[in-house]
Amino acid sequence: MVTAPPRVLTVAGSDSGGGAGIQADLKTMLALGVHGMSVICAVTAQNSLGVQGYWELPPEAVAAQLDSVLSDIGAQAVKTGMLASTALVETVADHLCGYDAPLVVDPVGVSKHGDTLLAADAVDAVRTTLLPLATVVTPNLWEVELLTGVKVESEDDLMRAAEAVKEHGPEWVLIKGGHLPTRPVDLLYNGSETHLFSDERYDNRHTHGTGCTLASAIASHLALGLSVPDAVAAAKTYISGAIRAGFPLGSGIGPVDHAWRTRARPA
């Protein structure tokens, strides 16, 4: 008898260029052997040069998608990304509150190109309604400052940032230090345990979708039964390979290669 793979739900925005958002999430889930499902919260007009515009879906449309998937198929892990507005953050939090599955929150506030993807008045809703539900929250350095006011300027600031985010209630905090001026270091913290993940500097500017991909990889590995530290370690291995294999697309920043483990490269 054929059995279904683990199921992972992404709740995020659509990237018309295919490098980030829902598209990156589903590619990651497929690559890691889980069944990906999607709730679309916003549609972006986006390419390798930036985000030219975005349009939110009505809260009732997001609620209906959540009801459809969770009431019938169910999910063994959930990942959230671009939620855009207070109404959508609150709608998603209301539906996920009490749902018995790990939740990975990528508090998307800005695109790789610097385009704002979260309304200013929605930041408090993320802090107060979504972060307390999170199994893991994965802010980058800009998002840490947005959520807590803590500015990370060196590796020494990572723990202070993690403690500040942890005060808002997530079980684990992963501070992504890819934009540190020295070596890239990520810090995973749950109030007592600390894990550091150090990366090389990649000679590759094609990094569109790294945050979405990492969060989706963590959710996929949680659905596969790994602990949070092991899921983050496995996700870091996956995203590192995807960044190394990133390819040019369009005239700007290309995407990471979600299929890097299987794609045949010319000699």
Structural features, described:
This protein has 267 residues and is of the alpha/beta class. Helices cover 34% and strands 19% of the residues. Strands 3-2-1-4-5-6-7-8-9 form a nine-stranded mixed β-sheet, sandwiched between helices. Helix 7 packs across helix 8. The radius of gyration is 17 Å and the shape is globular. The mean pLDDT is 93. One of its GO terms (cellular component) is cytosol.
Assign the CATH architecture: 3-Layer(aba) Sandwich
CATH topology: UDP-N-acetylmuramoyl-L-alanine:D-glutamate ligase
Number of separate helices = 8
Overall 3D geometry? globular
Pathway: Cofactor biosynthesis; thiamine diphosphate biosynthesis; 4-amino-2-methyl-5-diphosphomethylpyrimidine from 5-amino-1-(5-phospho-D-ribosyl)imidazole: step 3/3
GO biological process, one term: thiamine biosynthetic process
InterPro entries: HMP/HMP-P_kinase_dom, PM/HMP-P_kinase-1, Ribokinase-like
Keywords: ATP-binding, Kinase, Nucleotide-binding, Thiamine biosynthesis, Transferase
Structure keywords:
267 residues, alpha/beta, UDP-N-acetylmuramoyl-L-alanine:D-glutamate ligase, 9 strands
Task: Summarize the entry for a quick read.
Helices cover 34% and strands 19% of the residues. It has helices spanning 21-31, 59-72, 86-96, 123-130, 141-148, 158-166, 210-223, 228-244, and strands at 7-15, 35-47, 50-56, 77-80, 103-105, 136-137, 172-175, 185-189, 194-198. The termini are far apart.
